Amino acid sequence: MSEWMRVCPLEEIPRLGSRVVQTGKGDIAVFRNGLDEVFALRDQCPHKGGPLSQGIVFDRKVTCPLHSLTVQLDSGEAVAPDEGCTQRYRARVDKGEVYLNIS
Amino acid sequence: MTTRKKTRLVVIGNGMAGMRTLEELLKLAPDMYDITVFGAEPHGNYNRILLSPVLAGEMTIKDIMLNDVDWYAQNGITLHLNKKVTQIDRVRRKVIAGDGTEADYDRLLLATGSNPFMLPVPGKDLPGVVSYRDIKDTDEMIEAASRYRHAVVIGGGLLGLEAANGLRLRGMDVTVVHLMPWLMERQLDRTAAGLLQQSLEAKGLKFLLEKQTAELIAGESGRVCAIKFKDGETLSADLVVMAVGIRPNTELAETASLYCNRGVVVNDTMQTYDPRIYAVGECVSHRGIAYGLVAPLFEQAKVCANHLAQLGISRYTGSVTSTKLKVTGIDLFSAGDFIGGEGTEEIVLSDPSGGVYKKLVVKDDKIVGGVLYGDTAEGSWYFQLLRDGQNIRELRGRLMSGQSHLGNSGHQGQNNAASMPDEMEVCGCNGVCKGTIVKAIKEKGLFTLEEVRKHTKASSSCGSCTGLVEQILASTIGGAYQPVDASRKPLCGCTDYTHEEIRKAIVERKLKSIPEAMGFFEWRNVNGCASCRPALNYYLLCAWPHDYQDDPQSRFINERAHANIQKDGSYSVIPRIYGGVTTPEQLKRIAEVAEKYAVPTVKLTGGQRIDLLGVKKEDLPKVWADLDMPSGFAYGKSIRTVKTCVGSEWCRFGVQDSTNLGIALEKALDRMWAPHKVKLAVSGCPRNCAEATIKDVGIVGVDSGWEIYVAGNGGIKAEVSLFLVKVKSAEEVMEYASAFIQLYREEARYLDRTVHWVQRVGMDYVKKRIVADAAGRKALHERLADALRDEKDPWQERVRGVEAQEFVPIRL
Fold this sequence. Notes:
The complex is a heterodimer.
Chain A: E1 4-9, E2 17-23, E3 26-32, E4 38-42, E5 56-58, E6 61-63, E7 70-72, E8 88-94, E9 97-101
Antiparallel strand pairs in A: 1-9, 2-3, 3-4, 4-8, 5-6, 6-7, 8-9
Chain B: E1 7-12, H1 16-28, E2 33-38, E3 45-46, H2 51-55, E4 65-67, H3 69-74, E5 78-80, E6 85-89, E7 94-97, E8 102-104, E9 107-110, E10 114-116, E11 129-131, H4 135-147, E12 150-154, H5 158-169, E13 173-178, H6 190-202, E14 206-209, E15 213-218, E16 224-229, E17 234-236, E18 239-242, E19 246-248, H7 251-255, E20 264-266, E21 277-279, E22 284-286, H8 294-308, E23 322-324, E24 332-336, E25 345-351, E26 356-363, E27 366-373, H9 379-388, H10 396-399, E28 425-427, E29 432-433, H11 434-444, H12 449-456, H13 466-477, H14 499-508, H15 514-520, H16 532-543, H17 557-561, E30 564-565, E31 571-573, H18 584-596, E32 601-604, E33 610-615, H19 620-627, E34 639-644, H20 658-669, E35 678-683, E36 697-702, E37 705-710, E38 722-727, H21 730-747, H22 754-761, H23 763-772, H24 774-788, H25 794-799, E39 810-811
Parallel strand pairs in B: 1-2, 1-9, 2-5, 9-21, 11-18, 12-13, 12-18, 13-14, 20-22, 34-35, 35-36
Antiparallel strand pairs in B: 3-4, 6-7, 7-8, 10-19, 15-16, 16-17, 23-24, 24-27, 25-26, 26-27, 28-29, 30-31, 31-33, 32-33, 36-37, 37-38
């Protein structure tokens, strides 16, 4: 039984950018970094709920557009000294297609 | 797999300078070295400058630990506590401690600090005679305070007074003995020292000035019982604290035959005469100066770490230091040449009964030093002006009243941190109280404004309370506080190069993309960060308006979505309405759009525009299509608005046609990106209904022409704009205004408003470039017009389908 859902071709997510994926579990931000790795986080900053999908992406991090809290893409945790964590989901690329697992 | 053996770094001295160097090094090159640290004391690294509050009973030893033993373990550092290194074998490259412990090194760092100087008088070794240097001394003083009554502190300098104050608070009867005619003569002039002495006397301290110690006398128990002076007088003393100065601890370096001359002599990269051996801190003599305050040591640490990390791009060229006394309730600040002499002048405010004395020493229109007593609120501002060597001619009139009196908003008009209670809010944006900031500084060992911002968020949003936060930092850590050097500001943590260096190279080396620029300057992080990417994007765009391919992913979301993100993730839409003049037809269209998309809030803005708030991101392109109006750029570091009054067309007072000039200016500057937002206003008479004197460029019509003002600001900190020039015609206004804006675009740092930039470069410079140099002005004016000639309207572009996926969510 496959819980992986196809999202879109990789090139439809801008490099160092993201797309918002609307799911039954709410909005999920799917990021693509400079190395073409993909990550998925609940689209809500642990600080004041800002949409992380709209932030600036670098390395494996994204900076929230509302108050500049930086969140680690691979763990969902805020970068120290800030504290907080947002839900992380599994995401992967297979043959140029991005897949998401929210189970 | 073979692993290459790491280079071995041994550090002798487990104090603030040595550990700061390691912290800086670990940031730059976490895996380069195998590190071993030797410390003579049995503790981890603690904040020595906070020993005074410990003595005073305001803090505990636990509060002042900077690096506990776990920190060393977490960073893979081998730590030898309680082991004093007694020998350096430079031939075999190893150090040997007193207990026989050995460590081999490839690089060695000496951070042996300093020793207190003990007066060579009979009785100096008696029990009850202590220096004031480390935890052991502090413990001994605390212990003595619980058992004895009479304390004598020899030395009326910074350290002596802090010791005396602490002992007094612990209930002892304290006399300070000082050789010189007034206290703290190396930091204070006679007047300030007199005020200081008065308030210390009010706290119960006694003073004997111009007294020379001859001998310390033992009592029956063998402990010190009295002090005898050269003039034959004596005074009871159960505890004598010697605080007459420190001497660089060079003993070990000298036995290793390293060149020492009142300190271990180092060059600008903190290397001794043996280039494998570095030295930092109080043990060092750099260009003939040995520093005893913490701030210079941190600057040395930074340079040393940079060199150890083999980056080799930074040099230490010496420090200007400032002093603050850490005695609760006493505000005192001193920096530079506070006495003055040939060719200097003094600006003095003296109010002895109000307990305030401020003196600035000025030479050639620059501050060279100063003393503040009673009101040190402006200390960090003056010190910044001193360090940056800024010309203060235009500031003279308001130097004494200071910066913080000028309309800062957001913290109840407070401008003196010392008088604020702990529970009072300092940062109105993030709701941070004074007590929270003080607690974080103490518990987390913070030294810089940037660190305080990161840990507490105070002053990290609008920045209006920066001055207050700096004051709190300065009064909590005293002399260790050093304002950042504004004249040399690295772009961000990804590089050590400055904004100016990077802008210059972009032009000269013809760098035309972000990766090229990052590659050229060897950026530490491959993708940079959220601070440097937008800056680089702007610098490239400004340098190569027609060649540069704008990078949307390096823009803040507002400039990527061409709308203003709101707290709930929705956006606001503000169409361009040139000069604030609209038509019934436009208004109808805006109303229809607002109804069609169920826009929750329609509001008039401060810049005479109409704001549709609460638009969903995916609706933005449709809203723009229906509006069929140009983007108002109300979301960008860009031209915002030109505000106008009705002017001579309607107004019975109007002498100039401000409305049409405003419209012409807004059209000329349309679609212009800038280091920060740019706001203009045009008023048709000196009644100035368009409030032109708080704008980046403000034009005021007078009967005979137009006055042009620049670098005003109406936001966080109200700044009245400065007069640039008066011209006769609207055409001249267009030329001067756009030349000024282009100069700002080409030379300011990203996120500088015009006011910040002009305050740094000076109005003289701006006048020279814009008013005096007619050819230069015309060239600037033309460059701006050329840069904007092929900028397209971003809304219409997106209506046509550009960047479509930015606005479309994926539905699963």
